[in-house]
Amino acid sequence: MKTLLLLRHGKSSWDDPELEDHERPLKPRGQKYAKRIGRWLRDSGLKIDLVLCSTAVRARETWELVAESFKKAPAVEYLDELYHCPLDRFATVLNRLPAKVRTVLLVGHNPGLEDLLAKLRGEQESFPTGALAKLTCPIKSWTEFETDLPCTLEALVRPRELQ
């Protein structure tokens, strides 16, 4: 079994109309919620082997704030292809992971993450900014991962529901 964590970046700012979408930072609420998710992950005791994060500023900031909750943050790779990643590309990204990676955290964007969550669950689920989904996938190697793989949703954490 492999564990797949999906984290949608926190609420981002539209305050500067001159900024390109890729460069938009988090709003204060997005920063606060990222810290809540970080504490939830730390308190869950889940060992994350690798983080794959979009290169967008808001995704990077989200991960950096989440990572503050760990004594030793997991290794992170920033991937351009996770910036607005379409559903069919997630399998390509995950298929490259070594078998020793048991738990991976993807930090990215909608609609891709919401589409992936729906496909793996077999039903549509609202996936708001800052939310985290924990899925268990019935595979031994990431090379077996496909976007229509029936995975089990273990948790769907919405930061507004956390203290």
Element layout with pairings:
Elements: E1 2-8, H1 28-44, E2 50-54, H2 57-67, E3 75-79, H3 87-95, E4 103-108, H4 112-121, E5 132-137, E6 152-157
Helix pairs in contact: 1-2
Which keywords apply here?
163 residues, alpha/beta, Rossmann fold, six-stranded mixed β-sheet, 4 helices
Short structural summary:
The chain is of the alpha/beta class. It has helices spanning 28-44, 57-67, 87-95, 112-121; strands at residues 2-8, 50-54, 75-79, 103-108, 132-137, 152-157. The protein has a single domain (2-161), classed as Phosphoglycerate mutase-like (Rossmann fold, 3-Layer(aba) Sandwich).
Description:
This protein is α/β, with parallel strands linked by helices and 163 residues long. The chain has one domain: Rossmann fold (3-Layer(aba) Sandwich), CATH 3.40.50.1240. The chain has helices at 28-44, 57-67, 87-95, 112-121; strands spanning 2-8, 50-54, 75-79, 103-108, 132-137, 152-157. Strands 3-2-4-1-5-6 form a six-stranded mixed sheet, sandwiched between helices. α1 crosses α2 (57-67). The radius of gyration is 15 Å and the shape is globular. It starts with a strand and ends in a 6-residue tail after the last strand. The mean pLDDT is 94.
CATH topology: Rossmann fold
Level-1 CATH class name: Alpha Beta
* SSE ordering: EHEHEHEHEE
Indicate the proportion of strand residues: 15-25%
Tell me the number of structural domains: 1
> What is the 3D form?
globular
User: Under the CATH scheme, which architecture would be assigned?
Assistant: 3-Layer(aba) Sandwich
Structural class: alpha/beta
Total helical elements: 4
CATH superfamily: Phosphoglycerate mutase-like
Mean pLDDT: 94
